[in-house]
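Bench notes, afternoon.
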Amino acid sequence: MQEFEDYPFWDLIAEMAYKPGNETLRKGTYGRFQSLEAGKKLYLFGCNEACRLFIERFAAMYPIGGILDNSEARWGKEFCGLAVRNPREALPEILEADAAVIIALRLNADAAAEQLEEMGVRRYYGLGVLLSGISPYREMTKRLEALERQPMENMVMLESTNDFDGNAGALYEYLRSRGSSHRFVWVIKNPANRRFLADGRDVAVCPRADRAQMEEYITYRALAKWQIWDNYPIRKVRKDQTNVFLQHFGMGYKLIAGRYRAPEYIDYVLVVNEKVYAYEKASLQYPPGAKILFGELPRNDVLLSGQWDELSKITKHKYRKVVMWAPTLRESAVFRRIDSDLEYPYGVSLLYREADAEALNAFLVRRDMLLLVKIHPRQKCNYTDNRYSNIRYLDSEAVKKVHAYKLLTQVDAMITDYSSMVFDYMLLDRPVAWVLEDMEHYKVPFLMDNPLDFMPGNHIYTMADLYAFLEQVSEGEDPYRVQRNILSQQYNAPKEGNGCRNVARALGLEEKELI
């Protein structure tokens, strides 16, 4: 959705980026900045919307030499007419110009400050700290302090990747179905998703929509006893709040250290087992004080608990076989994140020409098969649905018409690449193939030394490979079943279907009379 004009700055305040841990950032007030940096060249650290807004508002007052970013996929490109640079390669220019750096990050400002210190840059400022000295942001910081002194309420605040989905969504449905007495407040990204509220007592706020809802979000967040999130952190603002990171994946393929760090305020992290923890702790850099909850992901309960019919919401035709193609994120429509240097006209790798898409559709028609392309909820869309009879797209809006994980139970096979969703799908014991054609162009490093060892199935590099896999599915063949199940048992929790119950009890959310 379209954010309100000043949202990126308000988001920094909401995230309390004006209270960094780094001493130099804390001392870098707006008054100090005006006094020491007037007329001097600046560099901005972080290619994001807060950076864009700063350029729009302040470029006329301060000459900006360029933008620093740790994402290799952005280097050499332009953002708001300025070059995006590797911080280390830009270092000689920064030092020669005697320039200061403004860190425009909401979560990782302290890490960026540490990086700059190691590079020898001593003059840097946090954009959140600077904003806290300017009206109206200064007044909001005072209100935040007042809210934190009010009594907390029996309230649970929730967030998930695509609103009301994932682990937080499954936990919400579970608790509401059992008559929970808690009041639930959802932090949503699309106002239209308010329709998924399960009880009239519950509330959904969309901080991106307007300033009023941003302030409402800040108020509820300060009063909620529990903050439970999958993807976009809900900031803990009081010591006696319980902050829970349920994650939006179990086992994954990507090493995202340096791009993301789990916030220091987390109290609990959900991880499927100790083997997965050994991999993910280095990638997500869990804070040392967080308690690890080992067990099933709540969202996977529906995979093991009954018969569902979500497919009828997409099509009335009864296909012989249904295959889901679930690619990972490559270019974000929400954040300025680019993980590949290729363009994907059909939303997936391998398919780049109209002739190939038409031939694939004809292949599917002859075998009475349906291909569902489930695009990552945050993926930038550059394709259209309904162009082909047997290829259907499920983007962030279309997938809200169905329950994505209930739909998985009706899918006969999965095609993926580097998406963590495949480890969940392995619980259903059905064929999987990995499209690896663009592996050399994918910019996110892998978590393991040899990711192919974690892909027990067909490896697809050409259209011929794709057809071969689809033919196997059509004929009911599953040659990699044994290897796949061995991997699934190693990197999934035991299949019991009690993820929601176990998390609720561990957090004290399930009242005793309901157990």
